Sequence to fold (323 residues):
Amino acid sequence: MQYRRLGSSGLQLSALSFGAWVTFASQVGRSVARDLIATAWDNGINFFDNAEGYANGQAESMMGDVIADLRLPRDGYCVSSKVFFGSASDPRPTQKGLSRKHVTDACHGALQRLRVDYLDLYYCHRPDPDTPIEETVWAMDALVRQGKVLYWGTSEWSATQIREAHRIARHHHLHPPTMEQPQYNLLHRERVELEYAPLYAEFGLGTTTWSPLASGLLTGKYNDGIPEQTRLGHEGHGWLKRMVLGDAEAQRLERVRRFTATAGRLGVAPAPLAIAWCLRNPHVSSVILGASHPEQLLQNLKAVELSDGLDDAAWQQVRAAVG
Fold:
């Protein structure tokens, strides 16, 4: 495993991390979750990602129980939560968003569910149009000063919003956001590569990116249709299918078919190849993996070797395939 600094901070995260989105307490039960986290830990992963909104908080509870059961040393791993969507099935106004109240209540709830005394990373899961950014920055700073959060950041914020949060923090001598958690894969590149480009040097922004496989699209398993026993075919994941395929389904699938054909010519599996491509970006601090069984996770971990093992000519073929 490789380890990378979280932006300009001193925190070292595994280049590949493991997250619970749409799997824990949804697709997998406690036994499989235990095997997945054990496999991740045994292979050097030290960052486990979660959020209050994943399975209405049940994903955090499952992860917390499993980590406690495995007796992982608290100083050896990092765990995150994210605040915005709420954990209630039908949240009231004070149970969602980025107000000082919900940011604080959500942090306490995550601490209890994850069975920890502090969160290593705490993200604002989306920008909140109903809450001034200044209020959120003050709330996050308070949690850092109380020792309940070590590093705070954003997820899917615009560069303008991130820059405003830094301006407020600098003006009031508060802790600024350290990292952003954006979607990043071969089919979704503009924000990480273009919009955030000035922020890496300006603020030392770190990124913990999600969906390196575009929710499984880049594995090639949807090239000929959507099987029922898959993430996009899962009952209740229609919203995810719309998000991944969008209005340009035929065009996107054609790009994926070209990519998987290129992977075949290179003699590698498409999944670790797609993940390795994300790792080659020096501004990526950690790539968050998802998996529903340990074998899948083990295959994806091969991306670390691939990122340095292929020559420039191979990566040019990959870029040409996806356009």
About this structure: The chain has a mean pLDDT of 94.
